[in-house]
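Batch manifest, entry 17 of 40.
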Amino acid sequence: MKAFCFFSLLVSTVLLSSCSQFIPVSKFAKGQELLGISKELFLAQYGMPYSQDAYYTPDSVMEERLFYIERLYNGDWHVLTTRFTFRDSILVKQEMYKDQSIYDTYKSNEKKE
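Output type: C-alpha cells
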C-alpha cells in the first residue's frame, strides 16, 4: 500500500510539474508598470538579457536596448522576443520585437534540406 501511495504521489508530482512548463502569457505582459524604472532594478528583477546593443542618439543621450526571449505555449509554441529601450539607464519603451511560431520555424528549416 505504501508503494502504491508513493507511486501515485510521484506520478502526480511529475504531471503537475510538467504542466507548469506550458506558459501562456509573457512575464513582461504588465508592460506600462515597468516604464520609468532604472536599468539596475530591471536587471535585478529579470536577469541578464539574451542580447543587447547600445548607441548614442543625435542629442548625445545613451540608449541601450535589451532583448529577452521567452518560449510560450498558447495553442502552439511560440518564441517571443521582447525589446526594452533605456535612455540614460531609465526604461522608456517596451515592445514585442518578434513573435515566431516554433512550428513555422521547423517547417521553413525542413524545406531548406
